């Protein structure tokens, strides 16, 4: 028996997420479902057991995503016999910048992916000086376990420090330019504590790979990190 059209859309959105950024991709799928009206304002999301099975994520990851959506004002949890997780009747207003067209968003994200994965790989390919190593570790420490008010600035500085480690000024300049564009988009979405913790762990993986001279590992770790941010941007802004 064929599914109604809205159930077909739900099946497409609530499909198993890829590995590596389960939290961010779960957020992306949930936000897409809300933005596209698959679950209408006031509507109830599928039960946690069903959602976690369909998305292929643990109940812990799903609850973390739902808690973040609740804090961001997109859903509310109700207790009791008829309880569950419901989309709020009034959704949060979009950020202060106009959402980019889908093609523009993908252009920025693709450019960032190419530049920053290449920068991580190039940095790991160099024979680093003691000063290079001290600087990378210092920026990593500065960015770890920092509060929301300072996080984006220090996160940006770490990414620029990785680009600087390539000793290629043109690449560093290009990374700075694309980071400026990305930050304008990030300022339009909420800072999510769970994502900050996830990013901290990925930052350590990236820097460790660079310091150990592992170009392939640095590139892959950076790609995973950027994919998580891209998922959140697509979810909130697309």
Structure description:
The chain is mainly α and 238 residues long. It has 2 domains: 5-87, Winged helix-like DNA-binding domain superfamily/Winged helix DNA-binding domain (Arc Repressor Mutant, subunit A, Orthogonal Bundle), CATH 1.10.10; 102-237, GntR ligand-binding domain-like (Four Helix Bundle (Hemerythrin (Met), subunit A), Up-down Bundle). It is built from 10 helices and 2 strands. Strands 1-2 form a two-stranded antiparallel ribbon. A hairpin with a 5-residue loop joins β1 and β2 (84-87). α7 runs antiparallel to α8 (169-186). The two termini are 32 Å apart. The relative contact order is 0.15.
Outline the fold blueprint.
Blueprint: H1 5-13, H2 22-35, H3 48-55, H4 59-71, E1 75-78, E2 84-87, H5 102-125, H6 130-143, H7 148-164, H8 169-186, H9 193-211, H10 215-237
Antiparallel strand pairs: 1-2
The spatial strand order of the largest sheet comes to 1-2
The average pLDDT is 88
H and E string: HHHHEEHHHHHH
Number of domains: 2
For the record, the CATH architecture of the largest domain stands as Up-down Bundle
């Amino acid at each position: 028996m064929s599914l109604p059209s809205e159930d077909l859309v739900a099946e497409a959105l609530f499909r198993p997420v890829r590995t590596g950024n389960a939290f961010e991709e779960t957020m992306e799928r949930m936000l897409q479902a809300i933005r596209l009206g698959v679950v209408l304002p006031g509507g109830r999301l599928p039960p946690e057991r069903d959602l976690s099975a369909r998305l292929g994520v643990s109940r812990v990851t799903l609850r973390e995503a739902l808690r973040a959506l609740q804090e961001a004002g997109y859903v509310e949890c109700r207790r009791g016999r008829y309880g569950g997780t419901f989309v709020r009747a009034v959704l949060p207003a979009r950020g202060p910048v106009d959402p980019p067209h889908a093609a523009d968003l993908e252009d920025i994200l693709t450019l960032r992916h190419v530049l920053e994965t290449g920068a991580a790989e190039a940095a790991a390919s160099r024979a680093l000086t003691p000063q290079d190593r001290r600087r990378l570790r210092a920026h990593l420490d500065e960015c770890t376990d920092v509060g929301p008010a300072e996080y984006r600035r220090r996160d940006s500085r770490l990414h620029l420090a990785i680009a600087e480690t390539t000793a290629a000024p043109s690449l560093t300049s290009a990374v700075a330019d694309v980071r400026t564009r990305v930050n304008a988009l990030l300022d339009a979405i909420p800072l999510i504590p769970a994502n900050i913790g996830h990013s901290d762990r990925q930052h350590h993986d990236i820097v460790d790979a660079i310091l150990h001279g592992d170009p392939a590992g640095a590139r892959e770790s950076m790609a995973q990190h950027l994919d998580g941010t891209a998922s959140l941007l697509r979810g909130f802004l697309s």
